[in-house]
Each structure stands twice: as structure tokens, then as C-alpha cells.
Design goal:
Largest sheet: 2 strands, antiparallel
Strand content: under 5%
Helix content: 55-70%
Distance between the termini: 60 Å
Structural class: mainly alpha
Length: about 650
């Protein structure tokens, strides 16, 4: 009875708790509703702030829609911004109620304050509601001819949003033509935003025929690029990079005019300028000009490596692509790419790759000494990459191979397990590339057999035993110990290496190796479950039984030098990435078409157009509307944003 009473009381308490929480929730919205309708301006302002705060953390305040709308009739710019943000957030879910705010929008679009006019036009475009479109065209047309450049530059970006919603309406009302005419505007901010808007509309158009840069506009854009803000410069430079010059003289002129952009503090401006110069190389034939352009590119690329680690990484990924087009571009700046103790590991990996790529015969010794220090670090994975870089330097330059072998020999003397194992793999790669040379190092490596545990290191060491068996005095005992532990090994590469080395030892020294090879082949054929290993053993057994001379000819046949796996991009991919330098494609080092989808449903990602969208390419720096979002949305003019179905959307999976 007592337990039943306790359970009943607990149930009652839970019901009371639920009722209290529901009342509190209801009470909060009721309180906000009361405050929004207060006769005191400061209380209404504070209530709007609280509504936006609740909306930001995910609370549903859509029930206050009509009460928030009542506060739109105010001269307070802060309240207007907050209310407009609220409207943008709930416009999709309550499009019918948004119509109630149209009159205020239209009135604000004719306000004496240019910031309010621009804010009204921007918000109407960002609502992305079909019902608003009919009321937007007339105010937008007026704002495109506004006397204030801030309003005009906001209006040209709004045309792109109208085009996204309904391309026919934008064309029929002359909005697209007005943006084309804005390319001749006297204000550089308007020009840069017009370029960004036209590029975005051209990307959205199925036929990509909205805009094509013509030679008559080139001079105007080249003048504007020196005066507009950084994001506007990026928009113009991207348009120029995609432009095909009509002749060599025009290409030279464009390159000369954009060269000062290489000195800009913004890394995106620098990389976009480099992209333009690299693309125009096919149009400029004068060798002295090409050499000067290449020389001008070096200092800004080096300067980017003094930035934050994230920017360094982006710069290094782009430099890696550039060096595949111009391998010697940064050969004199090798010290800049030396790893620092506080570099993040992802930056260190990129630097190692570039160091190997830009090294030349005259600085291989300096580089190998540097890499030797890296190989003594505590990070095991970094040590692996450093030792691999040493072998790649030795393989790339025959004159450096001896020094590379000496460096690896010094490292193996540290007797650190992971260092010794990586050295075994690295030395084997060098010996495969230079057959018949440097075999004197094999006896030295035999002294460190006890430090090997990784299958790749074991397989490399056993391969060296068989290939250079005449250099090792106690090879029989070493091979015998590996054959004894044959079944303890799980990796097939080690099994195959043991069989190959035993056969090579037998072919070279039949009397000493006969017992070993029989033992190895018998173990492999009778006890090993791996079919590849068994088949290899059977082939060798039958070949040696049928014709020993043929077996000798096969096993000891001259081998071509083994080339390391190429880390270079294919010519077609390199050409495509050069045209996308400074974009996400260059960081991922894959074409944009592999991660930008034309159909949202095809990509399996839900549509979401509730945000403000891509902002102006050149918002003012004085706190004007949208200034805080310019750095996020303007870096790639006409780039993929959150759009309706059928338009590009950036979808990256790292």
C-alpha cells in the first residue's frame, strides 16, 4: 500500500512539473507579446532583442510574428535590422504574413536614409518568397538608379537574388540589363558588385548566357580593381581570369595592370592574381615578360607562409600545384619551407612534399641534413614522412644518393624501433632504383634486425638479404630464423619475401642454400593458408625441378630501376586546378565538379534558403549592413551558396 501511495505521489509531482514548465514557456511568450505592444519605446526595443536572442538559440517564436511586425514602423536602425532578421528567418514558414510587411518595405526603400533604403532592398531579396517578388521590382529598379552608391551596390546584388527566384521576372523588368549597365558606374564598389552579381547569375543560368566579359569593359574593370575593397578585387580578378584575351597585346596589358595586386595583404587576392597570370601564360609569348611575371610571383607566395597555420596550409596546397607548372619557381627559397617546431602537423607534411619538389642538386646536402633532424622528432608519423623524403631526394638525384644512404645509416644507429623500420624501407627503395650500387650498406643493416616488427620493414630487409646475399656473411642463419618463424608472420608480403630470398640464395650459392630453400618451399606449400604464397612456392619448386638453368635466368634476370610512385597530378587535372587556383578545389586538389552538385535532391541534402545568402562583394567597412558577412560570402564571386533546387551548392565531405 505504501509503495502504491509513493508511486501515485511521484506521478502527481511529474504532472505538476510538466504543467509548471508549460506555463513558464507560455508565460515567456506571453510576456514578450506584452512587451512588444508596450507604449514605451525602450521596452519594445528590449523585447525585440529578446525575441531575436530566443530565435538564435533555436526557440520557436513564430507565434509573435504579427506583434514583431507592428514594431517595423520605427526610425531606430537597430530595431529595423533585428526585425528584418526575424522576417528572413520565418518568411518561408509564414509567407502569407510577410505580405503584411510589404508596405513598410516599400516605404523604407524610399527613406531619406541610404542605409535604410539599402537594408529594405537587401531584406526583400533575402526573403526568397514568391509573393514578395511582385512588390520588389519597382523599388529595386529605383534603387538601381539611386544617387547613393551604397544603395546601388546593394541593389545590384539583390538582382541576383531575384534572378535566382524567377529569372524571367528579372529579365522582363530590365533588372539584368540595369546590372550590365552598372559595369560603367562611376563608383568602384558598384562595379565590383555588378561583376559579382552577373557572374552569379551566369552560373545560375542553364545556358550560361547572362553575361560574357567583353574587351570594351576591360579597361573599366582594370581601373576599378585598384580602388575597390579586397572582396571586390577578387570578383573582378576572377572575371578577368576567366576572360580570353583577343590578342597577345591585350593579354600583356592585363597582366601588367594586375601585377600590383600581388602585393596585397589578402591571400585570396594574391592567389587569384597568380591564377590569372598562370592562365595568361598561353597568350603571352615574350620570354622576358614571362620570366618577370614568374619573378614577381615569388615574394607574395613566400609572404603567405608568415600567416596563421590555416592560411599557411591553403597557401602550401596552392604552391604545390603552382610548382608542378613551374618546378624551379621557388628553388632559391628552400629555407622558407623548413619546418618550425610549432608548426601544426598538417603544415609540416605539406612542407616536406614541397621541399622534395623544389630541391636542386646544389642544395641536396642542406636539405638532407635538415631532414635528418626531422627524423629524430618524437612524432612517429612525422618521422615516417621525413625518412621517406630522404629516400625521395636520393632517388631524384643520383649525386645525392650516396649522401642519402649515409644519412639513413646514421639514423639507424639511433636504435629507435620506428626509425630503424622506416630506414629499412627507405634504403630498399633507393637500392631498387639503383640496382648494383650501394650494396655495402646491407651488412650494416643486418646488425639491427632485432628492431624490426612492422611487416613492411621486414619484407624490405628480407628482400635486401636475397638481392645482396653475397654481401652478408651469416645470411644462412638469418634466413633460417625467418623460415622458422614463417607461420608466426601474418602478412603475405613477408612470406613472399622469405620465399624469394631463399630461392635467390639457393640460385647464387646452391650448396649452402639447398637445405634452406627446401625448408622454405615445403613450409609455404604445406602449412601456409594464403593461396598466393602457396602458388609462388609451387611455381619456384617446379621451375627449379624442371630446369635449374631456366630458374637461374628467371630469378637473376636484370631488373629495370624501380621508380617511386608519382605524387604529381595528371596534366589534365593540373590544367583544371590551375584555373581554380585559390578556391576550395585547389585545397582538396580535385575538380569542383566532384563536390559541387547541380541538384540538391541528387546530393541528398535538404534545401535551406532561410539565411541571408551571399552578401555584397564590397560592403563598406564602417559598419554598414552586411559588412560582417562580406568576408564569408564574397571571397568567391558568383560562388555556390544556399540556393533553390537546380542551382549549385557546395557540398564537401572531409
Amino acid at each position: 500500500m505504501m509503495n502504491a501511495a509513493i508511486q501515485t505521489n511521484i506521478a502527481r509531482l511529474q504532472i505538476m512539473k510538466a504543467k509548471v514548465l508549460a506555463a513558464l514557456r507560455k508565460g515567456e511568450n506571453y510576456e514578450l507579446k506584452t512587451e512588444l505592444n508596450s507604449e514605451y519605446r525602450e521596452r519594445r526595443k528590449e523585447a525585440v532583442r529578446r525575441v531575436i536572442a530566443n530565435m538564435t538559440v533555436g526557440k520557436d517564436v513564430s507565434g509573435l510574428f504579427t506583434d514583431v511586425l507592428k514594431n517595423m514602423h520605427t526610425d531606430d536602425l537597430e530595431i529595423k535590422k533585428l526585425i528584418y532578421l526575424y522576417l528572413i528567418n520565418y518568411a518561408k514558414t509564414q509567407p502569407d504574413l510577410v505580405i503584411l510587411a510589404i508596405n513598410t518595405f516599400v516605404k523604407d526603400a524610399e527613406d531619406s536614409n541610404p542605409l535604410i533604403r539599402a537594408l529594405a532592398i537587401r531584406t526583400m531579396g533575402c526573403l526568397h518568397v514568391q509573393e514578395v517578388l511582385d512588390y520588389l521590382c519597382n523599388p529595386l529598379s529605383k534603387c538601381l538608379k539611386d544617387a547613393n552608391p551604397y544603395v546601388r551596390k546593394t541593389a545590384v546584388m539583390c538582382v541576383a537574388k531575384v534572378f535566382d527566384l524567377d529569372a524571367n521576372v528579372a529579365e522582363e523588368n530590365g533588372l539584368v540589363d540595369a546590372v550590365r549597365a552598372a559595369l560603367s558606374d562611376s563608383n568602384t564598389m558598384v562595379v565590383s558588385n555588378a561583376v559579382s552579381s552577373l557572374a552569379e547569375m551566369n552560373e545560375m543560368s542553364p545556358q550560361h548566357n547572362v553575361w560574357r566579359l567583353e574587351s570594351q569593359s576591360i579597361s573599366k574593370l582594370l581601373t576599378a580593381v585598384n580602388e575597390c575593397v579586397e572582396w571586390g578585387q577578387i570578383a573582378i580578378l576572377e572575371a578577368l581570369a576567366d576572360y580570353t584575351p583577343k590578342d597577345e597585346k591585350e593579354a600583356e596589358n592585363i597582366c601588367e595592370r594586375v601585377l600590383p595586386r600581388l602585393q596585397h595583404a589578402n591571400g585570396s587576392v594574391v592567389l587569384t592574381t597568380v591564377r590569372l597570370l598562370l592562365r595568361y601564360e598561353s597568350f603571352v609569348r615574350r620570354a622576358d615578360l614571362l620570366a618577370r611575371f614568374s619573378k614577381k610571383m615569388v615574394p607574395p607566395l613566400v609572404t603567405l607562409l608568415s600567416s596563421e597555420p590555416e592560411i599557411q596550409y591553403v597557401a602550401l596546397r596552392n604552391i604545390n600545384i603552382i610548382l608542378q607548372r613551374h618546378p624551379r619557381l621557388l628553388s632559391k627559397e628552400i629555407h622558407v619551407f623548413f619546418c618550425r617546431y610549432n608548426d601544426p602537423i598538417y603544415v609540416k607534411y605539406e612542407k616536406l612534399g614541397i621541399l622534395v619538389r623544389i630541391c636542386s642538386e646544389r642544395n641536396t646536402e642542406t636539405l638532407l641534413n635538415e631532414l635528418k633532424e626531422y627524423a629524430k622528432e618524437v612524432d612517429v608519423e612525422f618521422v615516417h614522412h621525413a625518412i621517406l623524403a630522404i629516400s625521395r631526394v636520393g632517388i631524384r638525384y643520383e649525386s645525392a644518393a650516396k649522401k642519402a644512404i649515409g644519412t639513413l645509416t646514421e639514423l639507424v644507429e639511433t636504435k629507435v624501433d620506428h626509425v630503424v623500420q622506416n630506414v629499412m624501407v627507405a634504403v630498399a627503395e633507393i637500392l631498387r632504383h639503383y640496382p648494383g650500387k650501394f650494396e655495402a650498406v646491407v651488412p650494416t643493416l643486418c646488425e639491427y634486425i632485432d628492431y624490426m616488427a612492422e611487416p613492411q620493414a621486414k619484407a624490405s630487409f628480407i628482400w635486401m638479404l636475397g638481392e645482396y646475399s653475397e654481401q652478408v656473411k651469416n645470411i644462412a642463419s638469418i634466413l633460417n630464423s625467418h623460415i622458422e618463424s614463417f607461420m608466426e608472420e601474418e602478412d603475405a608480403s613477408v612470406h613472399l619475401a622469405i620465399i624469394n630470398s631463399a630461392v635467390k640464395f639457393f640460385v647464387k650459392q646452391p650448396q649452402k642454400g639447398q637445405t634452406l630453400v627446401l625448408k622454405a618451399l615445403k613450409t609455404a606449400t604445406e602449412k601456409c593458408a594464403n593461396p598466393d604464397v602457396r602458388d609462388r612456392a609451387y611455381i619456384y619448386w617446379r621451375l627449379m625441378s624442371a630446369d635449374p638453368n631456366a630458374a637461374r635466368a628467371v630469378v637473376l634476370a636484370d631488373k629495370l630501376p624501380v621508380e617511386p610512385e608519382s605524387v604529381d597530378l595528371s596534366p589534365a587535372l593540373l590544367k583544371e586546378l590551375i584555373c581554380e587556383l585559390g578556391r576550395v578545389s585547389s585545397v582538396l586538389q580535385k575538380p569542383g565538379s566532384t563536390f559541387v552538385y547541380k541538384s540538391m535532391e541528387k546530393a541528398g541534402v535538404p534545401l535551406d534558403s532561410s539565411g541571408m545568402g551571399q552578401d555584397d562583394a564590397g560592403d563598406s567597412e564602417d559598419g554598414a549592413p552586411g559588412a560582417s558577412a562580406a568576408a564569408d560570402g564574397g571571397a568567391i564571386a558568383g560562388g555556390a551558396g544556399t540556393t533553390t533546387a537546380g542551382e549549385p551548392e557546395l557540398l564537401i565531405s572531409f
